[in-house]
Specification:
The complex is a heterodimer of chains A (332) and B (134). Chain A is 28% helix and 30% strand. With 332 residues, chain A is of the alpha+beta class. Chain A is elongated. With 134 residues, chain B is mainly beta. Helices cover 7% and strands 36% of the residues of chain B. Chain B starts with 7 loop residues before the first strand and ends in an 18-residue tail after the last strand. In chain B, strand 1 (8-9) and strand 2 (15-16) form a beta hairpin. Chain B has one helix at residues 18-26; strands spanning 8-9, 15-16, 32-35, 39-43, 50-52, 72-74, 77-81, 86-91, 94-99, 103-108, 111-116. The chains are: A alpha+beta (332), B mainly beta (134). At the A-B interface, helix 4, helix 5, helix 6 and strand 7 of A face strand 3, strand 4, strand 7 and strand 11 of B.
Chain lengths: 332, 134
Protein backbone atom coordinates (compact mmCIF):
# COMPACT_ATOMS: atom_id res chain seq x y z
CA UNK A 1 0.00 0.00 0.00
CA UNK A 2 1.29 3.47 -0.87
CA UNK A 3 1.08 6.36 1.54
CA UNK A 4 1.58 10.03 0.76
CA UNK A 5 3.53 10.71 3.92
CA UNK A 6 4.45 9.27 7.32
CA UNK A 7 1.49 10.94 9.02
CA UNK A 8 -0.98 9.24 6.71
CA UNK A 9 0.71 5.89 7.24
CA UNK A 10 0.71 6.30 11.02
CA UNK A 11 -2.95 7.29 11.04
CA UNK A 12 -3.97 4.38 8.88
CA UNK A 13 -2.02 1.92 11.01
CA UNK A 14 -3.65 3.35 14.15
CA UNK A 15 -7.10 3.10 12.54
CA UNK A 16 -6.36 -0.52 11.64
CA UNK A 17 -5.34 -1.32 15.22
CA UNK A 18 -8.74 -0.10 16.46
CA UNK A 19 -11.09 -0.91 13.59
CA UNK A 20 -9.32 -3.85 11.95
CA UNK A 21 -10.55 -4.53 8.44
CA UNK A 22 -13.13 -1.74 8.81
CA UNK A 23 -10.36 0.82 8.29
CA UNK A 24 -9.60 1.78 4.71
CA UNK A 25 -7.72 4.42 2.77
CA UNK A 26 -8.46 5.92 -0.61
CA UNK A 27 -6.35 8.31 -2.65
CA UNK A 28 -7.80 10.68 -5.24
CA UNK A 29 -11.34 9.63 -4.43
CA UNK A 30 -13.71 11.79 -6.43
CA UNK A 31 -16.72 13.20 -4.66
CA UNK A 32 -19.38 15.32 -6.22
CA UNK A 33 -21.12 18.25 -4.61
CA UNK A 34 -24.81 18.52 -5.45
CA UNK A 35 -25.01 22.25 -4.93
CA UNK A 36 -21.77 23.97 -5.78
CA UNK A 37 -22.75 27.43 -4.65
CA UNK A 38 -22.88 26.91 -0.89
CA UNK A 39 -20.14 28.77 0.92
CA UNK A 40 -18.50 25.69 2.41
CA UNK A 41 -17.37 24.61 -1.05
CA UNK A 42 -15.80 27.96 -1.88
CA UNK A 43 -12.39 26.43 -1.16
CA UNK A 44 -12.92 23.58 -3.59
CA UNK A 45 -10.59 23.79 -6.56
CA UNK A 46 -13.19 22.70 -9.07
CA UNK A 47 -16.77 22.43 -7.89
CA UNK A 48 -18.88 20.38 -8.27
CA UNK A 49 -16.23 17.62 -8.26
CA UNK A 50 -13.29 17.22 -5.98
CA UNK A 51 -10.57 14.64 -5.47
CA UNK A 52 -9.74 13.79 -1.90
CA UNK A 53 -7.50 11.49 0.09
CA UNK A 54 -9.46 9.95 2.91
CA UNK A 55 -8.98 7.40 5.66
CA UNK A 56 -12.29 5.81 6.60
CA UNK A 57 -12.84 4.19 9.98
CA UNK A 58 -15.79 1.84 10.31
CA UNK A 59 -17.05 0.23 13.48
CA UNK A 60 -18.19 -3.34 13.91
CA UNK A 61 -20.92 -2.40 16.38
CA UNK A 62 -22.55 0.08 13.99
CA UNK A 63 -21.71 -0.64 10.34
CA UNK A 64 -23.77 2.37 9.29
CA UNK A 65 -21.53 4.81 11.17
CA UNK A 66 -18.21 5.83 9.65
CA UNK A 67 -15.58 8.39 10.43
CA UNK A 68 -13.92 10.27 7.57
CA UNK A 69 -10.39 11.27 8.54
CA UNK A 70 -8.40 13.99 6.84
CA UNK A 71 -4.64 13.86 7.32
CA UNK A 72 -2.99 17.30 7.16
CA UNK A 73 0.80 17.26 7.09
CA UNK A 74 1.83 20.90 6.66
CA UNK A 75 5.25 20.72 8.29
CA UNK A 76 5.47 23.68 10.64
CA UNK A 77 2.44 25.50 9.23
CA UNK A 78 -0.93 25.23 10.91
CA UNK A 79 -4.11 24.09 9.23
CA UNK A 80 -6.38 27.00 8.35
CA UNK A 81 -10.14 27.55 8.30
CA UNK A 82 -10.24 26.75 4.57
CA UNK A 83 -9.10 23.20 5.35
CA UNK A 84 -11.85 22.79 7.92
CA UNK A 85 -14.44 24.25 5.55
CA UNK A 86 -13.27 21.90 2.84
CA UNK A 87 -13.63 18.84 5.04
CA UNK A 88 -17.04 20.05 6.23
CA UNK A 89 -18.15 20.06 2.60
CA UNK A 90 -16.69 16.60 2.02
CA UNK A 91 -18.50 15.11 5.03
CA UNK A 92 -21.72 16.88 4.03
CA UNK A 93 -21.44 15.53 0.48
CA UNK A 94 -20.74 12.01 1.71
CA UNK A 95 -23.77 12.16 4.00
CA UNK A 96 -25.96 13.37 1.13
CA UNK A 97 -24.99 10.45 -1.09
CA UNK A 98 -24.47 7.82 1.53
CA UNK A 99 -27.64 5.83 1.19
CA UNK A 100 -28.03 5.42 4.92
CA UNK A 101 -24.50 5.49 6.24
CA UNK A 102 -23.84 8.37 8.64
CA UNK A 103 -20.46 10.07 8.41
CA UNK A 104 -18.60 12.10 10.98
CA UNK A 105 -15.52 14.13 10.09
CA UNK A 106 -12.17 14.28 11.83
CA UNK A 107 -9.15 16.39 10.87
CA UNK A 108 -5.67 15.52 12.13
CA UNK A 109 -2.96 18.17 11.85
CA UNK A 110 0.05 17.59 14.15
CA UNK A 111 1.20 21.19 13.61
CA UNK A 112 -2.18 22.26 15.06
CA UNK A 113 -4.80 24.69 13.76
CA UNK A 114 -5.14 28.44 13.56
CA UNK A 115 -7.66 29.98 15.91
CA UNK A 116 -10.24 30.61 13.18
CA UNK A 117 -10.65 26.85 12.68
CA UNK A 118 -12.54 26.24 15.90
CA UNK A 119 -15.82 28.04 15.08
CA UNK A 120 -15.99 26.26 11.74
CA UNK A 121 -15.21 22.89 13.27
CA UNK A 122 -17.75 23.26 16.06
CA UNK A 123 -20.43 24.65 13.73
CA UNK A 124 -19.94 21.74 11.31
CA UNK A 125 -19.37 19.17 14.05
CA UNK A 126 -15.87 18.15 12.96
CA UNK A 127 -13.36 16.74 15.42
CA UNK A 128 -9.95 18.43 15.54
CA UNK A 129 -6.77 16.64 16.63
CA UNK A 130 -4.85 18.04 18.43
CA UNK A 131 -7.47 20.01 20.34
CA UNK A 132 -7.50 23.80 20.28
CA UNK A 133 -7.31 25.00 23.84
CA UNK A 134 -6.96 28.39 25.48
CA UNK A 135 -3.54 28.96 23.93
CA UNK A 136 -1.77 27.86 20.79
CA UNK A 137 -0.59 24.30 21.16
CA UNK A 138 1.19 21.85 18.98
CA UNK A 139 2.11 18.29 19.88
CA UNK A 140 4.73 15.80 18.72
CA UNK A 141 3.62 13.37 16.04
CA UNK A 142 3.53 10.36 18.36
CA UNK A 143 1.25 12.20 20.81
CA UNK A 144 -1.03 13.18 17.94
CA UNK A 145 -1.26 9.56 16.84
CA UNK A 146 -2.03 8.49 20.42
CA UNK A 147 -4.81 11.09 20.56
CA UNK A 148 -6.23 9.79 17.30
CA UNK A 149 -6.16 6.18 18.48
CA UNK A 150 -7.77 7.17 21.79
CA UNK A 151 -10.59 8.95 19.95
CA UNK A 152 -11.28 5.97 17.68
CA UNK A 153 -11.20 3.48 20.56
CA UNK A 154 -13.46 5.67 22.73
CA UNK A 155 -15.91 6.20 19.87
CA UNK A 156 -15.95 2.45 19.17
CA UNK A 157 -17.21 1.95 22.75
CA UNK A 158 -19.41 5.05 22.86
CA UNK A 159 -21.60 3.82 19.98
CA UNK A 160 -22.72 0.87 22.11
CA UNK A 161 -24.94 3.45 23.84
CA UNK A 162 -27.45 5.92 22.39
CA UNK A 163 -25.30 8.15 20.21
CA UNK A 164 -27.63 10.07 17.90
CA UNK A 165 -26.73 13.26 19.72
CA UNK A 166 -23.15 12.99 18.47
CA UNK A 167 -24.39 13.79 14.96
CA UNK A 168 -25.74 17.16 16.13
CA UNK A 169 -23.23 20.02 16.23
CA UNK A 170 -21.16 20.54 18.27
CA UNK A 171 -21.39 17.25 20.19
CA UNK A 172 -18.91 15.23 18.15
CA UNK A 173 -16.50 18.19 18.16
CA UNK A 174 -16.80 18.27 21.97
CA UNK A 175 -16.48 14.49 22.27
CA UNK A 176 -13.14 14.60 20.45
CA UNK A 177 -12.04 17.58 22.52
CA UNK A 178 -12.86 15.81 25.80
CA UNK A 179 -10.99 12.67 24.78
CA UNK A 180 -7.84 14.53 23.69
CA UNK A 181 -7.47 17.60 25.91
CA UNK A 182 -5.78 15.76 28.82
CA UNK A 183 -2.67 14.85 26.81
CA UNK A 184 -1.13 18.23 27.56
CA UNK A 185 -0.77 17.39 31.27
CA UNK A 186 0.72 14.01 30.54
CA UNK A 187 3.32 15.42 28.14
CA UNK A 188 4.26 18.08 30.70
CA UNK A 189 4.69 15.36 33.36
CA UNK A 190 7.03 13.46 31.02
CA UNK A 191 8.97 16.67 30.46
CA UNK A 192 9.27 17.21 34.22
CA UNK A 193 10.17 13.73 35.44
CA UNK A 194 11.24 11.93 32.26
CA UNK A 195 10.70 8.22 32.32
CA UNK A 196 11.35 7.75 36.05
CA UNK A 197 7.89 6.74 37.27
CA UNK A 198 5.88 3.91 35.73
CA UNK A 199 2.50 2.73 36.94
CA UNK A 200 2.08 -1.05 36.89
CA UNK A 201 0.76 -3.33 35.53
CA UNK A 202 0.76 -1.43 32.20
CA UNK A 203 3.94 0.60 32.87
CA UNK A 204 2.08 3.85 32.16
CA UNK A 205 3.93 7.12 32.54
CA UNK A 206 3.37 8.40 36.04
CA UNK A 207 4.47 11.01 38.55
CA UNK A 208 5.80 11.32 42.09
CA UNK A 209 2.38 12.53 43.20
CA UNK A 210 0.76 9.37 41.96
CA UNK A 211 3.38 7.21 43.69
CA UNK A 212 2.51 8.85 46.98
CA UNK A 213 -1.25 8.80 46.46
CA UNK A 214 -1.08 5.10 45.62
CA UNK A 215 1.07 4.01 48.56
CA UNK A 216 0.00 6.47 51.27
CA UNK A 217 -1.31 4.51 54.28
CA UNK A 218 -0.30 1.12 52.83
CA UNK A 219 1.81 -1.11 55.04
CA UNK A 220 5.02 -2.85 54.04
CA UNK A 221 4.61 -6.63 53.79
CA UNK A 222 8.08 -7.61 52.63
CA UNK A 223 11.25 -6.46 50.89
CA UNK A 224 13.05 -8.46 48.21
CA UNK A 225 16.29 -7.72 46.42
CA UNK A 226 17.12 -9.44 43.14
CA UNK A 227 19.70 -8.94 40.41
CA UNK A 228 17.15 -6.83 38.53
CA UNK A 229 15.53 -4.68 41.18
CA UNK A 230 14.62 -3.87 44.74
CA UNK A 231 10.98 -4.71 45.46
CA UNK A 232 8.95 -3.46 48.39
CA UNK A 233 5.65 -5.30 48.70
CA UNK A 234 2.78 -3.37 50.26
CA UNK A 235 -0.69 -4.28 51.47
CA UNK A 236 -3.49 -4.48 48.88
CA UNK A 237 -1.10 -6.32 46.53
CA UNK A 238 0.75 -3.12 45.69
CA UNK A 239 4.43 -3.11 44.86
CA UNK A 240 7.18 -0.51 44.68
CA UNK A 241 10.20 -1.47 42.60
CA UNK A 242 13.46 0.32 41.97
CA UNK A 243 15.27 -0.81 38.83
CA UNK A 244 18.28 1.44 38.31
CA UNK A 245 16.93 4.97 37.88
CA UNK A 246 13.41 3.77 37.15
CA UNK A 247 10.61 3.39 39.70
CA UNK A 248 7.76 1.01 38.97
CA UNK A 249 4.78 0.83 41.30
CA UNK A 250 1.18 -0.25 41.47
CA UNK A 251 -0.85 -3.45 41.61
CA UNK A 252 1.52 -6.14 40.48
CA UNK A 253 1.13 -9.11 42.81
CA UNK A 254 4.09 -10.16 44.86
CA UNK A 255 6.54 -11.03 42.15
CA UNK A 256 9.96 -9.46 41.90
CA UNK A 257 11.66 -11.64 39.31
CA UNK A 258 15.31 -12.63 39.05
CA UNK A 259 17.75 -14.27 41.38
CA UNK A 260 17.93 -12.99 44.98
CA UNK A 261 21.13 -11.10 45.82
CA UNK A 262 22.58 -9.38 48.86
CA UNK A 263 22.48 -5.58 49.14
CA UNK A 264 24.33 -3.13 51.35
CA UNK A 265 22.14 -2.18 54.31
CA UNK A 266 22.73 0.67 56.74
CA UNK A 267 21.16 1.87 59.96
CA UNK A 268 21.14 5.29 61.60
CA UNK A 269 21.59 8.60 59.83
CA UNK A 270 25.38 8.25 59.73
CA UNK A 271 25.05 5.02 57.74
CA UNK A 272 26.44 2.21 59.92
CA UNK A 273 26.33 -1.25 58.36
CA UNK A 274 23.51 -3.57 59.44
CA UNK A 275 22.01 -6.82 58.26
CA UNK A 276 19.18 -7.02 55.75
CA UNK A 277 17.13 -8.94 58.33
CA UNK A 278 17.56 -6.18 60.89
CA UNK A 279 16.30 -3.56 58.43
CA UNK A 280 13.51 -5.79 57.18
CA UNK A 281 12.23 -6.56 60.68
CA UNK A 282 12.02 -2.87 61.46
CA UNK A 283 10.01 -1.76 58.43
CA UNK A 284 7.70 -4.73 57.81
CA UNK A 285 4.26 -3.92 59.16
CA UNK A 286 4.82 -0.13 59.08
CA UNK A 287 2.66 2.14 56.92
CA UNK A 288 3.67 4.96 54.60
CA UNK A 289 3.09 8.43 56.01
CA UNK A 290 5.27 10.48 53.66
CA UNK A 291 7.63 10.11 50.72
CA UNK A 292 10.46 11.99 49.06
CA UNK A 293 12.45 11.51 45.89
CA UNK A 294 15.97 12.86 45.66
CA UNK A 295 16.62 11.57 42.17
CA UNK A 296 19.04 8.78 43.13
CA UNK A 297 17.38 8.02 46.46
CA UNK A 298 13.72 7.43 47.30
CA UNK A 299 12.60 7.78 50.90
CA UNK A 300 9.49 6.51 52.64
CA UNK A 301 8.43 8.06 55.91
CA UNK A 302 6.84 5.26 57.93
CA UNK A 303 4.81 4.91 61.09
CA UNK A 304 6.83 4.51 64.31
CA UNK A 305 8.92 7.48 63.12
CA UNK A 306 10.93 5.33 60.73
CA UNK A 307 12.48 6.42 57.49
CA UNK A 308 13.36 3.86 54.82
CA UNK A 309 15.68 5.06 52.07
CA UNK A 310 16.08 3.06 48.87
CA UNK A 311 18.95 3.54 46.47
CA UNK A 312 19.72 1.17 43.57
CA UNK A 313 22.70 -0.29 45.48
CA UNK A 314 21.83 0.43 49.10
CA UNK A 315 19.06 0.42 51.73
CA UNK A 316 19.07 2.57 54.82
CA UNK A 317 16.77 2.86 57.83
CA UNK A 318 16.73 5.33 60.66
CA UNK A 319 14.33 6.65 63.24
CA UNK A 320 13.42 10.32 63.25
CA UNK A 321 12.54 12.30 66.36
CA UNK A 322 11.71 15.87 67.28
CA UNK A 323 13.01 18.29 68.44
CA UNK A 324 15.79 18.64 65.83
CA UNK A 325 18.65 18.34 68.30
CA UNK A 326 17.36 14.90 69.27
CA UNK A 327 16.40 14.08 65.74
CA UNK A 328 17.89 10.64 65.42
CA UNK A 329 17.78 7.70 67.75
CA UNK A 330 20.85 5.57 67.31
CA UNK A 331 20.65 1.78 67.33
CA UNK A 332 23.64 -0.08 68.73
CA UNK B 1 -6.64 10.67 41.11
CA UNK B 2 -8.51 11.70 44.23
CA UNK B 3 -7.75 15.37 43.94
CA UNK B 4 -9.45 15.62 40.58
CA UNK B 5 -12.49 13.52 41.30
CA UNK B 6 -15.68 15.36 40.51
CA UNK B 7 -18.49 15.72 43.07
CA UNK B 8 -21.30 13.51 41.86
CA UNK B 9 -24.84 12.94 43.09
CA UNK B 10 -27.86 10.99 41.91
CA UNK B 11 -31.26 12.55 41.18
CA UNK B 12 -32.13 12.23 44.88
CA UNK B 13 -29.02 14.33 45.61
CA UNK B 14 -27.32 11.39 47.35
CA UNK B 15 -23.55 11.51 47.04
CA UNK B 16 -21.99 8.97 44.67
CA UNK B 17 -18.54 7.60 45.43
CA UNK B 18 -16.38 7.93 42.33
CA UNK B 19 -14.32 4.79 42.96
CA UNK B 20 -17.50 2.74 43.40
CA UNK B 21 -18.84 4.23 40.18
CA UNK B 22 -15.68 3.19 38.33
CA UNK B 23 -16.01 -0.37 39.66
CA UNK B 24 -19.66 -0.39 38.60
CA UNK B 25 -18.70 0.78 35.12
CA UNK B 26 -15.97 -1.86 34.82
CA UNK B 27 -18.69 -4.54 34.78
CA UNK B 28 -19.61 -3.25 31.31
CA UNK B 29 -16.27 -2.54 29.67
CA UNK B 30 -17.89 -0.47 26.94
CA UNK B 31 -18.60 2.18 29.57
CA UNK B 32 -14.86 2.70 30.04
CA UNK B 33 -14.28 4.79 26.94
CA UNK B 34 -10.62 5.23 27.82
CA UNK B 35 -8.38 4.03 30.63
CA UNK B 36 -4.72 4.70 29.99
CA UNK B 37 -1.74 6.76 31.01
CA UNK B 38 -3.70 9.94 30.28
CA UNK B 39 -6.65 9.16 32.54
CA UNK B 40 -10.03 7.51 32.60
CA UNK B 41 -13.20 8.44 30.70
CA UNK B 42 -16.55 6.88 31.65
CA UNK B 43 -19.89 6.91 29.85
CA UNK B 44 -22.61 7.29 32.50
CA UNK B 45 -25.43 8.80 30.43
CA UNK B 46 -27.99 6.23 31.63
CA UNK B 47 -26.81 5.82 35.23
CA UNK B 48 -28.64 8.76 36.83
CA UNK B 49 -25.44 10.67 37.54
CA UNK B 50 -25.54 14.40 38.16
CA UNK B 51 -23.11 17.08 39.25
CA UNK B 52 -23.73 20.22 41.25
CA UNK B 53 -22.95 23.39 39.34
CA UNK B 54 -22.42 26.92 40.61
CA UNK B 55 -25.20 29.39 41.29
CA UNK B 56 -25.92 30.22 37.65
CA UNK B 57 -27.72 27.87 35.30
CA UNK B 58 -25.04 26.12 33.20
CA UNK B 59 -26.55 27.43 29.97
CA UNK B 60 -28.62 30.51 30.76
CA UNK B 61 -26.88 31.84 33.85
CA UNK B 62 -30.25 32.13 35.63
CA UNK B 63 -30.28 31.82 39.40
CA UNK B 64 -31.92 28.68 40.87
CA UNK B 65 -35.50 29.03 42.18
CA UNK B 66 -34.35 28.46 45.76
CA UNK B 67 -32.20 31.43 46.89
CA UNK B 68 -29.80 29.07 48.69
CA UNK B 69 -29.97 26.36 46.04
CA UNK B 70 -27.80 25.16 43.17
CA UNK B 71 -28.50 23.76 39.76
CA UNK B 72 -27.89 20.07 39.32
CA UNK B 73 -26.75 19.03 35.88
CA UNK B 74 -27.00 15.57 34.32
CA UNK B 75 -23.65 14.05 33.41
CA UNK B 76 -23.15 11.86 30.34
CA UNK B 77 -19.42 11.44 30.43
CA UNK B 78 -16.86 11.74 33.20
CA UNK B 79 -13.23 12.36 32.41
CA UNK B 80 -10.60 12.19 35.14
CA UNK B 81 -7.05 13.10 34.22
CA UNK B 82 -4.03 11.43 35.78
CA UNK B 83 -1.90 14.51 35.22
CA UNK B 84 -2.37 18.21 35.32
CA UNK B 85 -2.25 20.44 38.31
CA UNK B 86 -5.46 21.66 39.87
CA UNK B 87 -6.56 25.10 40.99
CA UNK B 88 -9.30 26.06 43.43
CA UNK B 89 -11.61 28.96 42.80
CA UNK B 90 -14.85 30.17 44.30
CA UNK B 91 -17.12 30.60 41.32
CA UNK B 92 -20.55 31.81 42.30
CA UNK B 93 -21.16 30.31 45.72
CA UNK B 94 -19.31 27.08 45.01
CA UNK B 95 -15.63 26.40 45.56
CA UNK B 96 -14.55 24.30 42.61
CA UNK B 97 -11.45 22.23 41.95
CA UNK B 98 -10.53 22.60 38.31
CA UNK B 99 -7.69 21.25 36.22
CA UNK B 100 -5.44 24.25 35.67
CA UNK B 101 -5.73 23.87 31.91
CA UNK B 102 -9.55 23.64 31.90
CA UNK B 103 -10.98 26.13 29.46
CA UNK B 104 -13.72 28.47 30.70
CA UNK B 105 -15.67 31.09 28.79
CA UNK B 106 -15.68 34.63 30.14
CA UNK B 107 -18.16 37.39 29.47
CA UNK B 108 -16.22 40.49 28.53
CA UNK B 109 -18.66 43.38 28.07
CA UNK B 110 -20.62 42.39 24.97
CA UNK B 111 -18.22 39.66 23.88
CA UNK B 112 -17.02 36.32 25.20
CA UNK B 113 -13.50 34.93 25.30
CA UNK B 114 -11.79 31.77 26.48
CA UNK B 115 -9.46 31.52 29.42
CA UNK B 116 -7.66 28.71 31.24
CA UNK B 117 -8.67 28.06 34.84
CA UNK B 118 -5.14 28.89 35.98
CA UNK B 119 -5.59 32.42 34.61
CA UNK B 120 -8.88 33.19 36.35
CA UNK B 121 -8.83 36.39 38.40
CA UNK B 122 -11.23 37.66 41.09
CA UNK B 123 -14.01 39.76 39.63
CA UNK B 124 -14.18 37.98 36.27
CA UNK B 125 -17.67 36.99 35.13
CA UNK B 126 -18.23 33.68 33.35
CA UNK B 127 -20.63 33.44 30.43
CA UNK B 128 -23.00 31.64 32.80
CA UNK B 129 -23.26 34.85 34.81
CA UNK B 130 -21.25 33.47 37.73
CA UNK B 131 -18.65 35.69 39.33
CA UNK B 132 -15.14 34.54 40.25
CA UNK B 133 -14.63 35.60 43.89
CA UNK B 134 -11.14 34.16 44.45
Amino acid sequence: MNFKNALEQNLFEAATRVCGANASIEHNKTIEIEVAITREVASFAGPPKKEIDVITAGFKQSPDVKMLISSKDFGNSKAEPAHVQEWAAVVKAMNQYSGGTKYLGLIVSPSSFTRGCEPWASAYNLGLIPPLKGKKLSFPLNTTIQMFERVLAAFDKRIHFPHEILFDAPHFYEFVYNITEAFEGRDEAIKDSGDRYKLLPMAWVSSFGEVYRTLKGKSIQDIEVTVAKICVHFSDDLSFKVAGERILFGPDGKTCGGQAVAIACEKNVIGEPCSFEFLRNLVVGQSVTSAGDWGHRFEFGLTDDLLLAIEPERLQVYRTRNPPDQLFVRWL
Amino acid sequence: MESEQPILVNSKLERIDFDELVERCRKDTNRILADDDVGIVLYVGDLDIHTVTGVGHPKTGDAPPDPNGHWVQKVNQISVKRFGSTVRHQIGSVVRTLASDSVLVLRDNETVRKIKAADLKPGMILDTGEKVYW
